[in-house]
Amino acid sequence: MGQKFAVFIAYDDEPNTKRYSAEFQTQNEYVKGWQSALKKAHHTSGQKSVITCGCRGKGAKRLYVRSLPNSDTFILIKAANTGTEHDPSCVFFDLDARHTGLKGYASNVVRINNEGTMSIRLGIGMTEKDPPEKSEVPTPPQIQRPEGGQASMTLSGLLSLLWTEAGLNVWYPNMAGKRNDSLVRYRMLDAAKQVKSGRACIGDHLFIGVADSKSKVASEQVKLLSSAELSDKRLLLLSVLPRYDAEKHEKPLKFLPMRNFGGMPLTFFNSDGHWDSVKRRFPLEYAAWKNGGKVVVFALTSPVSVTTRGLSARAHQIVLMLVSDNWIPLDSSYEAIVSRKLDAEHRHYVKPMRYDASASDVFPDFYLLDTRSDKPFPMEVFGMSTPAYLARKELKKAYYNQEYGAFGWWHWDATEKTESQDLPHFPEAKKYNSPESQP
């Protein structure tokens, strides 16, 4: 997560605004005092208050207090659609939806509720009584969206949403060595608790494997999966593909390969050609996996079956996503080169997620968040030289020049150079205090 800044709380019946430093919000010795302040500012206290963030961003930067379910803990959340008001280094910063794949949806597909939770319209049902899923066979890329935007979100879009809400598409230099499997699992499960599709809470359906199948976490997850309350619920299973082994993985597979399978049901494919269909739909990710890349696998499955031999489920839909060693999503091998160089130079950046965006939608491959500009600095990689791509490249360049100015964006023509040391220099980073890591 990003940097915590001072928070200001003003009450209608008190003359002075109270300031709470970043240290007061985060250090263990002040936990009781900070929770007491948040409880007082919560709407259930009966007192009217206005809470604002003290970061360097522009705008009102309004915050609200949310009570965590089944807990006495209170946290701060930003007001809906105000992420761009905050400084890029701030924990409450978020990209404008117009600069991500979110812009491809109709207005009612993703809604931020007043209490900070999110309601989405999925094109897939979360119980076995819902209509059958659409075919795994991919539809041709859309050139234009239906008027008003896409009417629902796919499984790929849901993965993009959860990854963004978990903050895993943003990299901070001081997170080096800290973003491991356990932290990713914690962040994803926490993000899923705040997302609903209809009456279904995504957090009630999402299960993420752990490395040790005999651990307490794995045992507790198996117990939950075996419970009656999940008997008619479809599951969302998240893991990483294991290290590629041609001898194992080139033969016909009956079940989905997972690296961290502790606490997970054995997930069978729904037909003999299912895995081949997945490979055709995600050729980049499959090729990267074969070459040693880290690939996230996300599956919608049937409700779990409980037998004496263990838990099993049948995959309805499967999506793959290539990520860097630091779990930043990548859309090409060239983006991987840029990402590695950004990491090596200790830069702060974000990957705008595609969601279900049309192939004709334009937004950058990355944004730098630590330049001298007071806005995110776009970065674009041009990676092909076909006539159609070159024509689209010129359209993209014209768009970026108009939107950001000729010197307001960075680009690299990867068809001319392929080594990271030959990349154009990145814009200079501004100097400010290193953001605090907030696992």
TrEMBL record:
Biased amino acid composition, Basic and acidic residues: 127-136
Swiss-Prot/TrEMBL keywords: Plasmid
InterPro entries on file: DUF1173
Region ranges (Disordered): 127-148
One Pfam family, short name: DUF1173
Protein name (Swiss-Prot/TrEMBL): DUF1173 family protein
Organism in which the protein naturally occurs: Klebsiella pneumoniae
